[in-house]
Please model this.
Amino acid sequence: MKIAILPGDGIGTEIVAEAVRVLNVLDLQFETETALVGGAAYEAHGHPLPESTLNLARSADAILFGAVGDWKYDQLERALRPEQAILGLRKHLGLFANLRPALCYEQLTQASSLKPELVAGLDILIIRELTGDIYFGQPRGRRIATDGHFPGAEEAFDTMRYSRPEIERIAHVTFQAARKRSKKVTSVDKANVLETFQFWKDVVTEVHAQYPDVELQHMYVDNAAMQLVKAPKAFDVIVTGNMFGDILSDEAAMLTGSIGMLPSASLDRANKGLYEPSHGSAPDIAGQGVANPLATILSAAMMLRYSLNQPAAADRIESAVKAVLTAGLRTPDIWSAGTHKVGTREMGDAVLAAVTGKTITTKS
Ligand code: IPM
Ligand code: MG
Model:
């Protein structure tokens, strides 16, 4: 087994380092190889996703990814910006199924911006289609308008599109995932306005006929955004397109107290995957040793479960994370009065200790 380690930019290097330390104490047989990606790769090789990094990702059984991006690259032409690295990996590796669990740990209900009773026990799974939609649709660009409200004016455009097979395969992933949970799927669309999402709704409904044991409801994206903050526990599995999924998964993440807690998996049709925290590179706190490494550590657990077939090792990591939270350790993003504030490295140390069966105590 080979794991490609792509730390990326900003806090990426700090948090991935902790996840790699945790993987290393598990005594599993795997090799790792690290490569530059994002802004770091642009600095060194002039491209955010160099051929060598893409080849490493292709040859590996799984990829552990940190984060990419920094405001300082905002002026670069789009093809050279750090974000193109993650978009390119998703596209070139066919990672169409993005699993973003939003789990509210009982120890963290106080950290949520919603009332504790609304989020206690929250456990939803957002499945975001990741290689289609307006993110990748062609044509796109800038031009002089020949019609519309202002003919002759400069305009920009993107194309929202989904093909039947793209919708069918994400629907199958969703219904199969729902069978392992409480068999309840909400498909989020904008069928009242968009042709693309009327088609989405129709195809999801057709695929659903093969899963009569799973309950399916449809919801417009604006209403879904509202219901997520009104009664989030009413959801179990949510499936949606690339752009709505981008937005709703950040919203769902915040319900759990901190986006710093949420892992994600991006899978191809053979369950080869890229695993990354749901949060970004946070350049504002990079290098300070205060970033929360738990989302990345939990992403490593997802990697063991989905791509490397090591469910027991995944369980060990997830239990260790719960143990450190129970012991009261908190990075600043999840800190609340009465708990013990720690940095990235200390949090990693605590998870390492818990994974190896040591009792976690706080120093204060
Ligand atoms: C995400 C991120 C990416 C996206 C960016 C970095 C391109 O926001 O993974 O949710 O929009 O998909
Ligand atoms: Mg996003």
Q: What stands out?
A: The chain has a mean pLDDT of 95. Residues 1-96+268-364 form a domain with the Isopropylmalate Dehydrogenase fold (CATH 3.40.718.10). Residues 246, 250 surround magnesium ion (ligand 2) (CB under 6 Å). The longest strand covers residues 2-8.
